[in-house]
Amino acid sequence: xSLIAAAAILLVADSSALVVTAPESEYDIGYSELVVxxxxxxxxxxxxCEKASHRDPARQINHAVALARVGDYEEAxxxxxxxxxxxxxxxxxxxxxxxxxxxxLARRGxxxxxxxxxxxxVALANR
Length: 127
Hints:
This protein is α+β, with helices and mostly antiparallel strands. The chain has helices at 31-35, 39-48, 57-69, 73-85, 102-114, and strands at residues 5-12, 15-20, 91-93, 99-101, 121-126.
């Protein structure tokens, strides 16, 4: 099974965060809401999505990002860790055109949590 997803780079202080979109219209995991900073709405979409498995790395990463943005760092860490340890591994395309392994993106999210970068989140995003 192959999953190709696009990711957006979000400006957070002097670092980058990640938001992933599901493959072309297959399912909605809160991408649009995360891009514009509607984190509560993104959480609702992600948690109500019945088409994407809870083990889907893209879903896990978006869920972690949304949780971190609303200040639930412990739950965000659980989701990023799950994505980093997930046996499913997919290449995701960033907004800059860079292809990045889902495990690498999850580890970047964990590093951002460790560095407190979600505390200073500024909703400036590009797709």
